[in-house]
Amino acid sequence: MAKEPLSQVDKKLPLVQNLSLGFQHAVIAILAAIPVPLIVAASTGMSLGQTRFFISAVIFTAGLSSILAALDLVPRTSPKLPMIMGASFAVVPVAIATLKAASSISVGFQIMAGATMVSGFLCFLAAPFWAKLQRFFPPIVIGTNLMVLGTALLPNTFHWMMADQAYHLTASVVPKAFYLTVGVFLFYVVISKYLKGMLGNITILLSLIVGTIAAAFMGMMNFATVKAAPWFAINMPLNFGLPKFDSEAILTFLIVMVLGMVEVSGTATGIHNIVHKPINRVQFGKILKTLGLGTLLSGLFNSVQPTSFVPSVGVLDLSKVHSRFPIATAGGMLMVIGFIPKFSALIAVIPKPVLGGIGFAIFGVIIGSAVDILKQVDFNGNQNKLIIGLSMGITMIPATYPNFYAHFPSLVQNIMGSGILSGALTAILLNIFFNFSDLRSKIN
């Protein structure tokens, strides 16, 4: 009988190899960090200064969360896993709704901080019991939720393409913006076909760089805020003021937290399989404790809920180096980058049409990942197809009619007005309704 491969997650590497692999993971991780603050900032009218700080905070906390996953800094909480953390896309609609409903962006960040910190704390408390709750999130639910997520976020690509004409439903696209978006998109398609290995894993970053350079030559960029931004600044906790604890915001962020727990559990399982590290109930608990602690700290630093970044799994598989220490190194690099406002200022001034060009890739990959998970689902003799169809239908309501729930109480608006939350909840509840007998057999 063949022996199981030994895990190398605890193997310490030579300094040069550790730094080079850490840098590679850090570059990949930046892609997991910057899209979320850019989407939220573009949709809420943040100033460039606020956007710059938000980007820095997200990069900083992504690094901090990655370190917590790799190193046992807080005793008995870390899974000691090579898992890069980024920002959760599921947070986007509730963050936008919270910031728009607040009297100012600063007050909105205070409410977000309170809701994020409470969500993280409750996730930490629920971690030991998560293994028992996972039966409610089989592949049909996880796959549908990912499809809901990608579909609900895809319209952002069209808004970015429209640039200053976004959300004006009778407006036409500006030719210059259209050509830039299509150019970035085609560039991404071509390099995705021909680049392999390390370069193949950073095609989105390369497209972002080339698109930004093209935008500069087209006269679509203003570097004044980049020049004015300092080279170094410490991200102070609670930059926008003390957290505010709004019950409706906390409930909506808790729903996003549950979705994040499902997502991280799935990704972590894949990582364990790749690195040949045993996974059990205690290990699952540590994974969720790390997520909860990372979320609590993210709220403290005015960031958003972190999540494991799926492409990092591919990097682990390709590199064949499974040590957790390069991940910790990457986390440290991200924290340092979070202290460089000039970098965040440069990200903040990237024209929206450039983001539109890579948006199809970012959100399309999420939908593709959903299809991959749904291949595991049995569709014979059950209503699983209906679960997917109805969930997608509910998701599309707010995308088609943004004010569909305007006459309902604010709590209903916050939950049902988000296609991600309403679609995900529909999938969870319909699975319980249609597949209750299967769930009950697992309980017994």
UniProtKB/TrEMBL annotation:
The keyword Cell inner membrane does not apply. PROSITE patterns: XANTH_URACIL_PERMASE. Pfam families: Xan_ur_permease (PF00860). GO terms for cellular component: plasma membrane. Keywords: Cell membrane, Membrane, Transmembrane, Transmembrane helix, Transport. GO terms for molecular function: xanthine transmembrane transporter activity. Its main location: membrane. InterPro entries: NCS2, Xan_ur_permease. It comes from the Bacteria. It is a multi-pass membrane protein. It is found in: Cell membrane. Belongs to the nucleobase:cation symporter-2 (NCS2) (TC 2.A.40) family. This is Xanthine permease. The lineage of its organism: Bacteria, Bacillati, Bacillota, Bacilli, Lactobacillales.
